[in-house]
Amino acid sequence: MPTGPPGRSTIRGVEHGLDVGTLFLAFASALVGAKVFGELAERLGQPAVLGELAVGVVLGPSVLGLVPLGDAVLELAEIGVALLLFEVGLETDLEELGRVGAPALAVALAGMLLPFSGGYAVARALGHPPLAATFVGAALTATSIGITARVLSELDVLATREGQIILGAAVVDDVLGLVVLAVVSKVAGGGTLDLATVGKSTGLAIGFLVAAVVLGVPLGRRLIHYVGKARVRGVLGAMSFAFALLVAWLARAAESAPIVGAFAAGAALARTNRRHDIDEAIKPVVDVFAPVFFVYVGAEVDVRRLDPSAAENRPALLLGLLLAAIGFAGKFVAGFASWGKVRRAFVGAGMVPRGEVGLIFASVGLSTRALDPPTFVSVLVAVFLTTFVAPPLLKVLRPPAAFGRTPGPDGERRRAAGP
Amino acid sequence: MPTGPPGRSTIRGVEHGLDVGTLFLAFASALVGAKVFGELAERLGQPAVLGELAVGVVLGPSVLGLVPLGDAVLELAEIGVALLLFEVGLETDLEELGRVGAPALAVALAGMLLPFSGGYAVARALGHPPLAATFVGAALTATSIGITARVLSELDVLATREGQIILGAAVVDDVLGLVVLAVVSKVAGGGTLDLATVGKSTGLAIGFLVAAVVLGVPLGRRLIHYVGKARVRGVLGAMSFAFALLVAWLARAAESAPIVGAFAAGAALARTNRRHDIDEAIKPVVDVFAPVFFVYVGAEVDVRRLDPSAAENRPALLLGLLLAAIGFAGKFVAGFASWGKVRRAFVGAGMVPRGEVGLIFASVGLSTRALDPPTFVSVLVAVFLTTFVAPPLLKVLRPPAAFGRTPGPDGERRRAAGP
C-alpha cells in the first residue's frame, strides 16, 4: 500500500479516520477563499465577513465540496470562534460595559420577546404544533455574537457606546438563549417544565459569567505575573490562549456556552497591564482560525433546498421568508429599547444576525424531532437571511464616531478604506 | 437534556462525536503543561522540547488521561508539526543547503545503512522472521526532522554549517524513509518487491521536493505580490499558511509526507522579500500549535508497558534497549561521514532522534501484522530513548559559533541563557 501510510498521518500509520490531506486542503481552501472573497466584499463596500460566509456556501458540500461538514473542520471552526470571542473580550472595557448594562439588558429582553412571540404566532397560525412553534420562536431569539462582534470590529466601533450596548445585549442573549434551549430541549425530550429547572439553568448560566469575570481578573493578573518571568519562547500568547480554553471548558461545565467563557476570559485579561501584548500575540492566530468558523457556517447552507423552482421547497421557503421578516423586525425594533446618546437603528441592526446560535436551536429541534425537515429548512432560511442582511446594514448605519482610525501596517487594514 | 446541546458544539447541537469541552481541556492542558515543563527543562539546562515530550507522557492516557490519543488532538498535532516545518523552511537558506548537499547526503545514507543493518541483524539473531526484522531495521533509519529542527532552533544553530548538514540529511532521511516505508508496506501487504515500484516511489518523492522548490519560489513571489495589495486584515499570515497547507497536501498526493511539503513551502517563501514579515506573522501560530505535537508524541508512551518489574515486559524492554543502542551508535557514527570545518559529533547527535517518523514505521508494522505487539513495544522504546537522549546531547555538543545572539523581547528568549 504505497499511498496509504504516508498520507494518513505524519504521526501514526494506523487508520484513525482522519485524512490529513483532506483536512489540509479544506483548511487551505477555507483560508484562501475567505481572504479572496473577504477582499472582494471589501472592494464592493461590504464587510469582509460577508465574503467569508458566501465563500463557505460555495466551498461547502452542496456546491464544490472542498470544505466537508465533519468533525475535523468543525473542530478548527470551534477553536476559531472561541479565539474570536476571546479577542473581543480582550478589546472590551468591563467598566464601559457595566455603564451600558441597563440599556443592553432592555435591548436583549425586547430582542428575545418580540421575535419569539412573532415566530410562535406565525408557526401556530400555519398549523404547526405548539412544540414546533416554540422551537421556531426560540431559534429567532438568539443573536450571533460571533458575527456581530466581527462586523463591529471591522467597522472599528467596538469601543463606541453603540458597540458596547450591542455586545452586552448579545452576551445576555447568548446566556439567556442557552437557558431557553436547555429548558425547551428538556420539554421536547419528554420532561416537564418546572420552575426549579428553569431557575437552576438560569442561575448557573448567569452565575458562571459573573464568577468568571470576578475570579478571572485576579487569576489573570497572577498568570501574567508568572508568565513575565518565563524564558521559553511564546509563553504569553500560549498561556493566554490556554486560559481562554480553560474558561471556555468551565463555561461548558456550568451549562453555558464555550464562547461565553472565552469572552469572559478575554474581558478578565483585558484588565491586566499586558492587554496590548496579549492582543498582539493572539491576533495572528485569530486571523488564521476565525475565517474557518465563518466559512463553516456558510458551508452548512444546502443550496438545493433553496431552489424555488422545485415545488416541494416552496412552502418551507415562504415560511422562511416570513420568519426572516419577523426575526429582522423584532430585533431591529428592539434596538429602540436602548437610550442615551446612541444611534438606535445601528443597535437594532447589530442584533439582527442569528448565525451559529440560531443554527444550534434548529439542529436541536431537528434531532429531538420537534421540527420536521421542511420547518428546519424554514428556520435555516431565516437564520441565514438575517445573518447576511446585517453586515451591509451595519455598514450603512455606522455611527460617525467610528471614523478616523489609521490603517495598519503592510497594506493590511482593519477596516475598509475608500477605493 | 439540559447539559447536552450547549456542550456538544457551538455550531450544531446534533451529535457529531466531537466533545468541544474535552478538546478545549486537552488543548489547554497540553499548552500549559508544555510551557511549564518546557520552562523547567530550560532551568535544568535542557532544551524545552524535552519538557514538552515528558509532559506528554504525564498528560497521556497511561497516566493522567487529560490528553486523549484521538482524532481531535491528533489533528491539532498535525497542524502543529506542519507549521513547525514551514517555519524551519522559512529559516532555511536554500543556497547554503545546496552547498552542504554532498556531506548531508553522505550523512543521510550512512545514517540509514548502519542502523538498518544493525537492527536487522539483532532481530534476526533473536529469532525474529525476516519481515519483522526488516520493519525493526527500517524503523531505526528515520530521523525526526521535527524534533531535530526544534532543538537546533532553540540552540540557535539552524544557520550554522552543522545545522544545515543535519537539516539537509534529515530531509533526505525523511524522503528516503517514506520510500522505504512504501516499499516495505507493499511487501508486508503481500506484494512483490520489484525495481519498478522502488524506482517509481523514489522518483515521485525526490521529484516532488525538487518541483516544489523550483516551482514554489516564483509562485511564492507572485503570491506575496498580490497579498501586498490586500486591504483586509491578516492576509499575509493566512495566505502564507494556506500556501504551506496546499504544498503539504500536494506532498501527500505525490506519496511524500505532508511535513516535507510544508518544509518546501517555507524554503520557497524564504526567497521572497517578505520572509521576515511572514516569519513574524506565523511565529505566534507556531507557538500555540507546535507544542501540541510534542505533547502528543509523548502521550503515545504507555508507561505500563515500560514497567521492568513485570516479567512479561522484560524481553521486549531488553530488545528495545539493544535497538536504542544500535540506533544511537549508527546515527552518531554517521555524523562522521560529514566533512569540512564542522563539529562532526554534533552532526551525529543531531541525527539521533527518531520521533514521529520512527513511530510511523512501528505503527504500520503493527497494523500490517509484520510486528507482534511485544516487538512493537521494543521499537517504541528505541524510538523514545533516542528521542529523549538527543536534545541534552546536542546541548552539550553545541558548536561555539552559535553563541552571541541576543534574547528576544518581553523576557521570552529563543534559547536558554544561564540562570
Textual characterization of the structure:
The structure is a homodimer of 419-residue chains. The first copy, chain A, is mostly helical. The first copy, chain A, has helices at residues 4-8, 20-43, 48-59, 71-90, 94-99, 101-125, 130-139, 145-154, 161-188, 195-227, 235-253, 258-269, 275-299, 314-334, 344-350, 355-367, 373-397. Residues 1-17 and 402-419 of chain A have low confidence and may be disordered. The interface between A and B is large, with 111 and 110 residues.
Question: What's this model, at a glance?
Answer:
Chain A has 419 residues and is mostly helical. The first copy, chain A, contains 17 helices and no strands. In chain A, α11 (235-253) packs across α13 (275-299), α14 crosses α15 (344-350) and α14 runs parallel beside α17.
List the helices and strands and how they pair.
The structure is a homodimer of 419-residue chains.
Chain A: H1 4-8, H2 20-43, H3 48-59, H4 71-90, H5 94-99, H6 101-125, H7 130-139, H8 145-154, H9 161-188, H10 195-227, H11 235-253, H12 258-269, H13 275-299, H14 314-334, H15 344-350, H16 355-367, H17 373-397
Helix pairs in contact in A: 2-3, 2-13, 3-13, 4-8, 4-12, 4-13, 6-7, 6-9, 6-14, 7-9, 7-16, 8-9, 8-17, 9-10, 9-15, 9-16, 10-11, 10-12, 11-12, 11-13, 14-15, 14-17, 15-17, 16-17
What labels would you give this structure?
homodimer, mainly alpha
Oligomer state equals homodimer
Anisotropy-based shape of chain A = globular
> Strand pairing plus helix content of chain A: what structural class?
mainly alpha
Order of SSEs of chain A? HHHHHHHHHHHHHHHHH
What's the total helix number of chain A? 17
The count of β-strands of chain A is 0
Strand content of chain A: under 5%
Mean pLDDT of chain A: 79
Please outline the major beta sheet of chain A: none
- Ends distance of chain A: 54 Å
Q: Low-confidence parts of chain A, pLDDT < 50 over ≥5 residues?
A: 1-17, 402-419
